[in-house]
Each structure stands twice: as structure tokens, then as C-alpha cells.
Amino acid sequence: MHFTRSLARPMMVAALALLGWSAQAQDGITKTSIVLGQSVALIGPGSALAAPFHAGAKIYFDKVNAAGGINGRKIELVTLDDRGSPALTETNTKKLVDQGVLALFGYYGSAQVAKAYPLIKDSEIVLFAPMSAADEFRGAKYANVFSVRPGYAEEAAAIARHAETLGARRFAVVYASDSESLAALDSTERTLPSLGATLSVKAAMGSGAVANSVDTVLAAKPQSILVIADANGAASAVRDIRAKGFRGPIYGYSNTGESLLAEELGPEGAGVVVVRVVPKSENPKAAVVREMLADAQSANAGKPNVYMVEGYIAARVLTEALRRVGREPSRAKLRKAIEGLDNMTLGGFRVHFADDRTGSKLVELSLIDSQGKIRE
């Protein structure tokens, strides 16, 4: 088991902190700290997106702590590595809840969130800003989940509208069989037909069978192809689709990994359109991006990407809620503060939780150009 409080600190530090919570913390609050819990993949499946998210969040929390914290309390993000395993997410979440945290933060993976949720559903603990887009988390069944990012239904709608402008509304879908891709597929099957698009065929990418799935969808003569997979799987499918002569639009959801896919494909990715749910990481026009770039540079955090931006924004939104809680924080007060974030703008990024457990509706499309670069 790995316990990580920062990508730059020794893992043992977090382990010792975890062991000490029960003696100090009441619902994640001590005289000097506000304790948040996170189970996320720092290695293994999903880590290419989850680790930058974690790093972005830590950059912002560390910035807040360097300025004195929240009413004199430092934000302590204790992160347990689940290596992309839902079963390990469940184990980690039980540890976090049993030891006492104010809230859970920034989980990655729809299957992971679903596995962790029963441990908090009858409590006042909220799970804030999961990097998971399954539509079910926006429903009444998951009342303790507050998402900053929109769900796959909104992503599917953006893709459908774009395809309509191109006169290419007859879709085929190539999809991987991991849990996050299946969650996206479920939304696709419900959303695209409701918006007037046609889903003519779908084909699973079995192990080593990408070419077979591509042959299946191309035989249906689609106008657009939606590839639902991580960056590695999507890149394999895109290469084969183009090699077999398809020149229509190819789309990917946010879990495909915008910048990761562009790096995998290079110029071969020309014309691929990928959903993004936060401002582009190289866009200096967005104040929140300028601030994150400066903070990342100061923290020597490496090359920023869109997932680091998402983590930074999620941490900033939660910090604003913590400030509104006041000097005597509690789980119930934090939830009320989140629900009170009404039409608020942070660095140009709009957040609105009043009467909604999804704070942002931002969905934008990125295009990979002929140089393998991301364009808006």
C-alpha cells in the first residue's frame, strides 16, 4: 500500500499522518488542519489523467497553505494510491472515513466512485470533484457527490452538435471495455439518438482486436466515428481507421485524454476532435490558466496539461467553499457552503452549484491539427 501526500514528498509522511488522525481529528478538523481524503491512481490504469489532476490540486492547496491556510488551518490532502483498482478504492476509502476526514476529494474513475460511495451515502461526508463523468452520479442516487465537471451526456451533446454542422450525424462507435469507457458508451447510446443522430453500429475493442472492431464499424459506412478509450487504445483505433481510408470526423470524450492522444498520434491525429471540460492548458487568455501556469512553474511541477488545470480548478472551488464555512468547520456546514456557490466566477471559470450538484457546464472541443498540436 502506498500513501502519498504529494508527488514530491516521501510516501511515509502521509502514512504517519494517517495513523495519527484518530487521536487528533474530529471529522477531519484539528486546531491546525483541515483533512481531506483522496483515493486515486498515481500509477496503473487511469494514472495518466489522475496523477496530473492530483498534482494540480496540490499546487493550489500548497499555495493556500503558504499564505496561512483557511482561518489559520492548513489544508491536508491525504492521498492513497488505488492503482486504478475499484476494490482498492473501496479499501482506501474505508481507511479515510474510519480515520476521519472532512470530505473526500478528486477521485478518478466512474467504477471507483461507485465502489466508494456506499461508505459515505448515509453520512454527511461529501465526495467533491470526482474526475468521473458517468451520468448516474448527477442523479438522486448519489446525493453526496458534487461534481465540478459535466457528465458524458453533455459531452455527447457537444459532439452531436458539431457533427450536425458537418452533415455527419450517422455515427459508429468503437469502444474499449474498461469501466470508464462503458460508462461513456451508456451515455452515448442514450444521448445521441435523442439529439437526432443515428448510432448505426458499435464494436468493442477486445485485446489485440482493434483491427476487427474497425472493420466492423467501417462496413456500416458511418459519417462520423466516436472512439471511446484511453489515449493508447484510441490512438491504435484512429491509426487503423485512417489507414483504411476513412476521412470523416473522429471524436473522443474527455477520458480519451486530449493532450495525451495528441502526443500519441502526432500528425496522424489530424482532424480528430476531443472533448475538454476546462480551459485549454496553453490558453493565457483564461485567468485561471495563467495563474496555474505561474504556480506550476514556481512548484517545478513539470509540463502542465488539461488534467492539471482540472485539478487546480477543483481545489480552488473547494477552497472557496471552505472559506465560506467560517471558523468552526463541519461536514454539514461544508455541504451547505458548496450548495451556496451560486453563479460564481473564479479566474474566469464559472461555477454554479445552487439547485444543482454539477458546478460547471463547460464543454469545449479541441482539434488535433496536422502538426499533432491541440487547437480550439
From TrEMBL:
<dbReference type="InterPro" id="IPR028081">
    <property type="entry name" value="Leu-bd"/>
</dbReference>
<keyword id="KW-0732">Signal</keyword>
<dbReference type="InterPro" id="IPR028082">
    <property type="entry name" value="Peripla_BP_I"/>
</dbReference>
<feature type="signal peptide">
    <location>
        <begin position="1"/>
        <end position="25"/>
    </location>
</feature>
<protein>
    <submittedName>
        <fullName>ABC transporter substrate-binding protein</fullName>
    </submittedName>
</protein>
<comment type="similarity">
    <text>Belongs to the leucine-binding protein family.</text>
</comment>
<dbReference type="Pfam" id="PF13458">
    <property type="entry name" value="Peripla_BP_6"/>
</dbReference>
<feature type="domain" description="Leucine-binding protein">
    <location>
        <begin position="34"/>
        <end position="359"/>
    </location>
</feature>
